[in-house]
Amino acid sequence: MSERNPYQMALEQLDKCAKMMKLDPNVHEILKYPKRVLCVNVPVKMDDGTVKVFQGFRSQHNDALGPFKGGIRYHPNVTMEEVMALSVWMTWKCAVAALPYGGSKGGVICNPKEMSVGEIERLSRGYFSAISVIVGPDRDIPAGDVNTSGREMAWFMDEYSRLRTYNVPGTVTGKPLPIGGSEGRVEATGKGVSIAGREGAKKLGIELRRADVVVQGFGNVGYHSAKFMSEFGCKITGLSDSKGGIYNPKGFNVDEVFRFKEKKGTLVGYPDAKEITNEELLERKCDILIPCALENQITEENAHRIKSRLVLEGANGPTTPEADEILHQSGVMVVPDILANAGGVSVSYFEWVQNLQNYYWSREEVNDKLDRLMVKAFNSVYETYLRYETDMRMAAYICAINRVTEAMRIRGWV
Ligand code: GLU
């Protein structure tokens, strides 16, 4: 598969949108660059006594609407440009969801699957301490992303609190419940994806109880998206992780597959399923396709073989601009990442609000607020989509860029 530079992709999407909405060139100029990118080199004592230096980044794109917000990923293929692109997408995502946040992202080049828990903890503390000069509850609030979860968030929160000498729970979101996490955060991104799916299906006349769904990626987002779609009555016919995919036209019990993966480390080998590759999985016939893995999955090479009617981007940046064009021409509705997976950062926002108030909400309250927020965001993007006669991605960009532009103008940046 051809690899696109994600930052180039983010710029192309911005350019296309700027043209369509006749964006003020001064605003366009500012939005092209992150406000700040920090590169850190973190020495870690490895279990064998050697010291290894890991490189990490934190990119802060735009904070016109509020403090920066965005996750931190651990992956061997992390690059500075990828982190920059992801920070741009966070600006749009927070704006689409109407959250009082700007966009940022962090990443560390490492392979946590080959590291011990102790090594990951020392790396996490070292990285967070290195970026602590630019993060904090009023400045930039990190969260989880690829290969990071509550465990790492707890270390981040603890490290930052140690540096400040008092507890600062609002410095990071996605924390475990006992240290200021929010009810509903773990499943929030997948829940948001399924709400976007429900709304998209309504518009396309897809009946969820008769719909076949394929999900690529079985991490937090993929698993929960599959789970909530199956709770809506959909049949989950295809699933995959980084090692490969499984297919069964009769549908999977998502929790059983999850338990299998927990035991074996992969869902490959799940009984009563046809084994297929990740590429084949994307091209399977289904009503709804949910890519929840990494960037660059739907490209100009395979886009014309996609057979679903609705694509929900659980992952960030899974579709290249060329593929977008092909899907749009063939009448496939793509609910873009910045809308489809905004449920995660939205409940992160709820968590932060609870931390700042020291007052905690029930799961029902969180889920109810999330549902209303996602429906409102979906509808405003959908109205823009109809008004501009464009695709859902451009519509989401227009909504987001309008909000950021208004804030920049009021603040006197342009
Ligand atoms: N990493 C997630 C995302 O890409 C969550 C970010 C957050 O909660 O701040 O949206």
What topology does this entry show?
Elements: H1 6-20, H2 25-31, E1 36-45, E2 51-62, E3 68-75, H3 80-96, E4 102-109, H4 117-131, E5 140-144, H5 150-164, H6 188-204, E6 212-216, H7 220-231, E7 235-241, E8 244-247, H8 254-264, E9 274-276, H9 278-282, E10 288-291, E11 310-312, H10 321-329, E12 333-335, H11 337-340, H12 342-357, H13 363-388, H14 392-411
Helix pairs in contact: 1-3, 1-14, 3-14, 4-5, 6-7, 6-12, 6-13, 12-13, 13-14
The structure holds glutamic acid (GLU).
Can you give a write-up of this model?
The chain is of the alpha/beta class and 414 residues long. Among the domains are: 34-167, Rossmann fold, CATH 3.40.50.10860; 188-340, NAD(P)-binding Rossmann-like Domain (Rossmann fold). Helix content is 46%, strand content 17%. It has 14 helices and twelve strands. It has helices at residues 6-20, 25-31, 80-96, 117-131, 150-164, 188-204, 220-231, 254-264, 278-282, 321-329, 337-340, 342-357, 363-388, 392-411; strands spanning 36-45, 51-62, 68-75, 102-109, 140-144, 212-216, 235-241, 244-247, 274-276, 288-291, 310-312, 333-335. A seven-stranded mixed β-sheet has the order 9-8-7-6-10-11-12. Strand 6, helix 7 (220-231) and strand 7 (235-241) form a beta-alpha-beta unit. Helix 13 (363-388) crosses helix 14. It is globular, with a radius of gyration of 20 Å.
